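Table S5 (text form). Sequence records supplied for joint modeling of the two-component complex.
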Amino acid sequence: MRLTFIIGYGGFTIGVLSKLLAEKARDFGFEYIVVSDKVCSEHVDFIRRSDAVFIYSNELPEDVEDAIKKGNAKLVIALSDSCSHLTKASPVVVSKAWTFYKTGGEENLRALIHLILREVGLSVEVPELKEVPWHGILHPDLGFFNSTREYLKAYPYADRPLVGLLFYRNQAIYGQLGYIRALVMALEGEGLGVVPVFTYGFKDALLNTPTAEDTIREFFLIDGKSVVDIVINLTSFFLLDHGRRVKNSSERFKVASGVQLLKKLGVPIISAVVSFHQSVEEWLRDERGVDYLTQVYRIIMPEVDGLIEPIFVAGSKVSPDGVRVYEAFEEHAKYLARRIKRWIKLRRKRPEERRIAIILINPPCKGLEASLAVGLGLDVPESVTRLLHRLKELGYNVGDRLPKDGKEFVRMFMERKAISEFRWTSVDDIVRSGGAVAFVDADTYMRWFEELPSNVKEKMIADWGHPLDVLSGRVSRELVGMVYGGKFVIPGILFGNVFITPQPKYGCAGPVCDGRVCRILHDPSIAPPHQWLAVYRWITRVFKADLVIHFGTHGALEFRPGKGVGLSPSCWPEISIDDVPHLYVYVVSNPMEGVIAKRRSYAVLVDHMYPPMCKADALDEIDTLLNQYTHAKQLGETTRAQVIYEKLLKVARENNIPLTEDEPDKTVEEIHRYVSAVRNTQIEAGLHVFGHPPEDPDVLAEHVATIMAFDSYNCPSIRRVLAEVLGLNYDDLRRNSDRLNQLGLTNGETLDLLHRLAVRMIKRLLVTDINPQRLTSDVILKILKEELEEVLKC
Amino acid sequence: MLRTSLKPRVEKVDELVKVFKVALEVAKRVKDCKCELDGLLAGFNGAYIEPGPSGALTRGKIDVLPTGRNFYAVNPMAIPTPAAWKVGIETAEKLIRHYLERHGRYPETVGQVLWSIDGYKADGEQLAQILYLFGTRPVWASDGSVRGIEVIPLKELGRPRIDVVVRISGILRDTLPNYIYLIDDAVSKVVALDEPPEMNFVRKHYLERLEELKKLGVGREEEARCRVWCSPPGTYGTGVNYAVEASAWRSGEDLAKVWVQWSCYMYTRNSFGKPSPEALIMSLKTVDLVTRNHISDEHDPFNCCCYFAYHGGFYNTVKNLTGREVEVVVVDTRDVSFTDVRTIKNEIERIVRAKLLNPAWIERMKRHGYRGASEFSRKILHLYGWSATTNMVADWVFDEIAKTYVLDDEMRQWFEQNNIWALEEIARRLIEAAERGLWKTSAELLKRLKEAYAEIEGVLEETMVGVGESEIQGGTIRLISPDEVEVWKKKLSEVERAWKRVK
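The corresponding structure-token record, covering 1297 residues in total, follows.
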């Protein structure tokens, strides 16, 4: 008799099954194989001749499927959906096998083998199911606990700040704890305590297993309060339940209700990356960092639940028997432990003790003195000033010389020249004007420099010269940046415990901007210059920031050289940010750069709205002429049309509208197209101030009508809906903006009218403060009629 | 007149209620952005910050508000979506028509600037467009994820398969590598088809290139097949922005070589950043049209330097390489029901008029003082960048910019009070444009501009310089090209060599 076991998903049970099958084979005299899905093709002949096949795998190679279909097996138990069509067994047997296998552990796997042997006709008894906990605490040295209270009684470090670990139960019951041990040791080594919790991770309909949410509730909360200060999640996919039955996978990329639980827990949850596809070696060599699927399952999906800091902590490789074995990347276990210690320090400090560094985006290439504190769509000076005042109210130490507004904020920086050197600002000026808060001398810098991995040091020296040579001016001028009296200058202003600094230069050094100095232009992979490192290290090591904030969309940190995603200690964003918690204020309309900031600089984003928008409505005069022309033409007033046409041409030329056509009608169409493209442009009405959205109903109504002007996949254009309610053909209005319609207006005029109508109606509703849920057809029709009359009057 | 006929149609009223409920919901969510500060302060406490989606409000993604959250991105596995696929087909057809109408033949190769915004905010419309140009289509699984690529038979396609050369962004490379895989799969399938060269430009170019590469001894199948190019691993951008902003170029060819140096890295299923300047330059030779999708007005081509550096830089490279006239356009999908193809010239002027020369826009920005001024100078710098790379900024545009921002007394005073450095940057770039011959204007205007600049320089020297002893650059423009800087010249030598051999 022959038995085949094909075990996919990493083949964690292969070891235990092999041992058990060896025993049973001695007792009952059968042949068997236990193989992973990756190598099962090598055993096609055996599989074809097998009497029973047990499959736990997502997909099988074609030849193996074929062998099973055409082979001898009378009993085939396939436990995954994708292979279930191969099953040859009664539902009762399948569900029993499922229960044994999923519950797992040595005794249940033995029971599974008995079940199979019985089904192929041997006379064996099938034992009862042995319960094995679905979730619990498993400390590598202390063993298993089924309650946190009990664990904490036994745990010697229970009085330390506690870190929760969340990992898969499979790893707990099949001896895959190597990298968990590494993490526990690193954390305990930093003076922290650990609550290592395993979970089944999702709801099994048959077995009623706990989800991660259940496990979090059970083990990280006591009396509704979190017992941990931070959690490291080591499971894949979403952490929270996103409805496994939702058909469209993208529908699951929504905020889950479980976010409420995480809010209640109230601690940062780190999404440490464990690769299922790369060994530590392979990852270290890979310029991508982690592979695509690891990025999806371990980074992109956890982000949907608010998980942060995707730091690579373990890889995996397949052992000779086909089992995938995890291996820790020890250096990152320690790095993560240091970061966590800083998070906890931040959490436990009182506001007045917290030290905060705010980095202002200050791209030199845009004219450094002209662009301090930029950020897409954001008035950063005003936003930071208001933040400082708020911090003061909350008891933070922000000193006693706060600027009163953004204008004064900028004035303080520019008067003291608290910026980097550039065209108009020499380093002497900076120092003498009071723009330097500190200096970093050679000894201090060398200590930091020597910590860097050797490949990083070598590259930095090749790119920028040796730091001692830079500080003593023994290298050419374009390599020397922000050096004064043999020290690196740290520019910025201290407001009590808050340090505000412009982001240092990243691809050039010194006060000059030209093709010689622009070193990044010569070499895209260039390391940042020494002063870059000096500033970032000064923030974390001397100023000892508890928190770093990059304030405004798109700085240089997240784009420094290194792996793509899943960084290593040799990657510049990781080197720069050191071990300090990192917040990044980012515009919500920019997921592109935002995800890079999250993944490459370990930032927790705090997003803000894009500024309110409005329609551009430029070129009024031409627009009016265009409409007059169409009217005249339609009414058959040829002479008048001709006069208007001439005027139109004149004004168009004066306004530099490009005219390429010869015939009047085509020319008019060309002008129309050009003008309406401009007029239909949605523009930002100023900049946003963080935390201060527009409240003026006029601005708000214009904003809402503007952003709803176009058809999208999610919602029809508000103008379309109004047009259609009024019996107008919206598609025609859009396509032929120079034609007259049944209103006696040009289509272009009508579109403008519909926009104004939308604005007025929204404003009306806003002013009356109506509850959207109570909005009835009677109310809206009444408003529509009244406002329509008003806009038609104009 | 007929206006009395505007009687609301009862059968459409439900739609009306629905859309105004959305409008009110948006307004409410905007007001709720007050909680941005709470989100930030939660971070100060080291607490959990709630997640929220990201994307384009102008495309109906109202759930991105309220902000103050830690945003996440989309499901990359389900790109393009079936809805975006339709837009992709439509825009591919419009692109082809745009070229056909002007040149009487099909474009052989379309150059595409492809960024991650396509995945993150436009559901993969541009990816769909590219796949359709090849004459391929995505195959979806029942859960909406894209399982693979399938070839559309020529009979069904009814036109030749158009070749595409894609310059992706580093962000797309790092965070949406599935784009690379899908394009590579499509190309692999299409080059293997037994079809006549005039109906399959992809295969035609593949075979020609294979021959040429072998002759030069610099590559084989993979180089001939590669259609996706980017900067070296771990780096971002095309370098052209640095060259333009640092005035580090003398000719369009200088900029072209920088673009090639930063773009000649292959990205396929098997290669992650293997350099091949020869294969890139070869593939640029057949480009007839260079395009990028514009998906929402929450960004504009003057927002950041990447627009001119990627897109203008691409066009400039092809033009300098081939000496041919090449079309350069944007595909506008802001309104998914009314997609459009616009020339870059018109696109530049659209934004110039809607923003830079629009008094309403200027007024709003001025309220933000220094920060508003930096918005002006940055956008004008990038406008200049478009001029440097495409020469498609009309003279009148620079005339009006000069008059509005530098020669207007009130505006100049405003700058002097708020951000004189921004004014200096603007005036200096205008002078640079004139001196490079990118902007032809009257002697009178130029004279006034230079006088104004001298005055600005005077103020700056008086207020900014003095306490220190070091020399400063001030407003000096130092034109330097690659052959004047030893390290740079060395870095560019491979590109120089390939350029000469392939050209």
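Note: The mean pLDDT of chain A is 96.
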